[in-house]
Here is the input.
Amino acid sequence: MPGDAGIALVVIAEDSALVTAYLEQLCESDPQIRIVGRARDGKELLELPELPIAQVVLLDLLMPELGGLSLVKRLSERAMVVAISSEDEGSALAREALALGAAAFFSKRSLAKPAVQQELRRVIKQGAAQFAAARGQAIGFVVGSTGAIAPLEHIVRSLRGTAAPLLVVQHLPDGRAENLAQLLHHQDYPAHVALHGEQLLPGVFIAPAGRHMTIDARDRIALTIGEPVALHRPSGEVLLRSAARLGPRAVAVVLSGLGNDGARALGELAERGGQCFVQHPEEAHAPFMPRAGAAASSKVRPVRDAQLGATLRKLLADD
Here is the structure.
C-alpha cells in the first residue's frame, strides 16, 4: 500500500461513525484518494497501525477522550493535518488549529456544498503529493560552535551546485548570523538567515539569534522562541530532534564546540537511520561537542576535516 504511486493515503479521526462514513465516501469518490485508517478519538488515532504510512490526517478537533486540537502540532510533524469541526471557518478554533500547524480547516456544515467537497479533495491530493515528494529529498543539518566556522565553510563550498538544503545552527553573538550568511553565500549555493515558514530550497538556512529553528512535517522552516536548551537558543539539540522523523533522509554533522549541544539528538537520529557524523575530535578546535556526539551512539561516525565536504556531498547530492 505505501508504494501505490499517486494515491493519497488518508486517516480519518472522527468520533461520529456517520460523519466518518460521509467523509470516506466524499474522499474516495476520487480514485486518487484512499482511506487507510479510522479512529474515534485522539488516543485511538495515536495507536492506529496505519498512522505511520498516512500522508494526510483528517482530524476532528473536538473529540471525546483526547481531542484533535491537542494533537495538531504533534501530528503535523509526521503528516499533513486537515482540521474539521462543526465550528465555522474563521472561528477562534479554526485560527488556533491553523496556527498550530494544520494545513487547512473545513467546517462540517460547509462540506455539504459540492465546491467545498472538491476543494477538500484538491487539498488532500496536493498535500499528499508534496508530502510524498518531500520524503524523498535528503536534507543536511550542521551544528557548530567555537571553532566550527572553518569546517562549515569547507562543507558549504563542497555543496555548491547541488540541490541540497542545509540547515545550520551555529552559536554566534547576536547580530552575527547575517555576517555568517554573507561569508557562506555563493551564487551557486545561496546562504541566508532563515525565515519562519520558508520552503526548503537549495542553499544554506542559518538559524537566527534568539530563535530555535526546526523543520516541520512539510519540510518547512519553523522558528520559535522557547527556552534555551543546553544553554543555547538557537540550539542544535532542538534542530536535530525535529529531524528525527526524517530517518535516512537526514544527513547531520556536529562540528567543533564547547559543551554538548546536539549530542543526544544526534545519537537518537542515528538510531532512527539518519546518516550522522562528527568532526573528528582530534582535528576539532574544541573537541567537546564532537566527542559528546560520537559517544551518543555507536552509529555516529567521526570524519576527518579533509573528508567532511565530500562525505556530505556524496549523501546529499545527485552526482
User: Anything to note?
Assistant: Residues 8-134 form a domain with the Rossmann fold fold (CATH 3.40.50.2300).
